[in-house]
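Regression check, heme C case 260:
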Amino acid sequence: MKRVSYGIALGIVLLAGLLASAQTPAGGGQQAPPPMTNLQVWPKDTSRAVVLQFMNAFDDSLGVQCNYCHVEQGGRLDFASDEKREKKVARQMILLRDSINVVLPAIVGKPAGAGPTSVNGQPGAPVRVLCSSCHRGLPIPRSLADVVTDAAASGGAAGLAKYKELRTQYYGGQQYDFTENALLGIAQRAITAKNPDDALAYLQTNLEYYPKSARTYLAMAQARSAKGDKQAAIKDLEKALELDPNNAQVKGQLQQLRGQ
Ligand code: HEC
Ligand code: HEC
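Current build output:
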């Protein structure tokens, strides 16, 4: 009996708590938050909980916080204000994302209403493009190669410093590709742009991270050849062959250089 009345009392407390939290759904505040007044893309009557769910997803997708898009006024964020450029861009981005998802089913020939996987040879539903599909946790989703190559405009050392800085900050995340390929691609760009010394610096660094990368030695040989340093190129190719004895490309180039 005592137990039951305790249960009822607890129930009343819980109910009271629920009612209170229903009036202050945004968490923590004593007052109910003002109603939303400036939804232009989503229906005006979208519930606060749903809007906040979208907003949290924005934060995660772009790797930012609310104040990236919402202006701060008197120590508080004014969510309704359209003062910040980023918020206005984000509105257009919602429309962009949604418009991609409208046309995608026809482009890939998969019915929008289908289940996620194929059944009886019928294709499943297309992938839904999300903010994160493009943004990967960055507000401006540039590729690592672009960021590093741009930084290198003020000298190869600056490019390398940028790479190391980003690697320290983001390694293991979805933002940038730090596999063996990344610095190789960046070095190739440098070779194409006739900066073999920059390329060599990138490749040396790649070897610090991937000491067994035959492809890095192969690219080093290319950069050495571009500098006219045939002996060093041969050495790099020999090292590449040691690491990857069946690499036909390395064998061919080695033969060619030795024959010259
Ligand atoms: C990438 C930009 C971006 C980020 C980050 C962002 N928002 Fe928003 N927010 C928007 C846009 C755009 C709208 C307007 C949507 C519309 O017009 O339908 C909006 C609308 C809102 C609204 C409705 C305001 C009103 O009165 O109309 C609230 C509340 C809100 N955001 C809260 C948040 C919170 C809380 C966060 C952090 C968790 C956040 N936002 C992060 C872009 C952003
Ligand atoms: C199809 C790819 C794609 C999708 C989907 C996408 N974005 Fe973007 N977004 C970009 C690219 C690329 C840029 C950078 C453009 C530039 O500045 O060169 C960008 C820029 C932005 C910016 C401006 C950043 C700044 O500081 O200049 C915001 C804010 C933004 N996106 C928000 C969003 C939100 C929110 C979503 C989901 C509703 C979204 N984006 C979906 C590709 C996309």
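Comparison notes: The mean pLDDT is 88. The pocket of heme C (ligand 1) is lined by residues 36-42, 51-52, 55-56, 58-59, 62, 64, 66, 68-70, 79-80, 86-87, 90-91 (CB under 6 Å). No diff flagged against the previous build.
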